[in-house]
Amino acid sequence: MAKINVKVNGRKEKIEERASLRDLFNKLEINPEVAVTKLNDAIIDKDRYNETLLKENDEIEIIFFMGGGAFDFSEEEIERYSRHIILPEISGQGQQKIKEASVLVVGAGGLGSPVAYYLAAAGVGRLGIIDSDLVDLSNLQRQILHTTADLDRPKVESAREKLQAINPNIEIITYNQYLNKDNVLEIIESFDLVVDGVDNFPTRYLLNDACVMKNKPLVEAGILRFDGQIMTIKPGEGPCYRCIFTRPPAEGTIPSCQEAGVLGAIAGTIGTLQATEALKIITGVGKPLIGRLLIYDAKELSFREVEIRRNPDCPVCGDNPTITELIEYELSCELHQQTEEAGDNE
Ligand SMILES: [Zn+2]
């Protein structure tokens, strides 16, 4: 088919003869909702995009909504997020919510890697990463934020580099420290939602309790060997982690990934689901995993869902909570030593 030349926002474009304005928007992957169009001298309503055929040397100005409470995307951002923006469920409005959102990813390890990658790529405006570990050789089998060249570097530094390279438009805040009862409330305070990517019970309980106390949504997950599980906790709307697991298991009864192993790709599957849940909560799209524990069995390749109700006797989110101050469970000294050295965030 013959091509014709038109000018779009001052730039030459070659398009099919008899292409419509709609075809042009499709070709440029621009959601017609986010802009108005001036064709030569006239503003064309988007209802007429289909019937408006383009001719040689037409001059088209696509003028994007900006400021004024509408969307404030640059042209670069519109193109970068075009695959989101063309989804009717997300559109410019949803992408604006993503841009305005802030998410704290706890742990830059196996789970935290895909979570942070996808949230950065999606354009989450403020992304916090907390991890006190250095990159260890045994991490590289699954912690895909880090490369061989990053060995012995702080994980948050390595993470920041990769994430900023994917998306220079977002703000990345790093915390090179261990989450504890003295800093957790203050750190989660400034984020809209928290994603748990840790592999130790003290931090998992600490995060759950802190998020319940601060009313922050928490996307909770764990992985071990060939299995994974994930649940979204929205305080006030559904159960929390303690509604299922009231107290941590007796010390030494549940192995960690570093003791029992984990198939690296499991972290990818579960971490990607966590990122999806975070984006659903931010945009309000779909039904989050609230009150539903999703269990993944990679050997069988099966997913199972267990319905969980809020426990009125839950010590932290129940009707008469007994835990009103944060508790820090102790890791055994030996295990703690290992985690400090080897890194334990999943
Ligand atoms: Zn609870």
Question: Care to describe what's here?
Answer:
About 30% of the residues lie in helices and about 20% in strands. With about 350 residues, it is an alpha/beta fold. α5 runs parallel beside α6 (about 155-165) and α5 (about 110-120) runs parallel beside α11 (about 265-285). Zinc ion binds near residues 239, 240, 243, 314 and 316.
The total number of structural domains is 2
Level-1 CATH class name of the largest domain: Alpha Beta
Q: What is the architecture of the largest domain at the second tier of CATH?
A: 3-Layer(aba) Sandwich
- Find the structural class using helix and strand composition: alpha/beta
Q: Tell me which ligands are bound.
A: zinc ion
Major β-sheet strand ordering: 8-7-6-9-10-11-12-13
Number of helices: 12
Q: What is the strand tally?
A: 13
Give me the CATH superfamily of the largest domain. Answer: NAD(P)-binding Rossmann-like Domain
Give the N-to-C terminal Cα separation: 53 Å
Instruction: Describe the sheet with the most strands.
Output: 8 strands, mixed
What are the low-pLDDT stretches, counting only 5+ consecutive residues below 50?
333-343
What is the average per-residue confidence, as pLDDT, rounded to a whole number?
A: 90
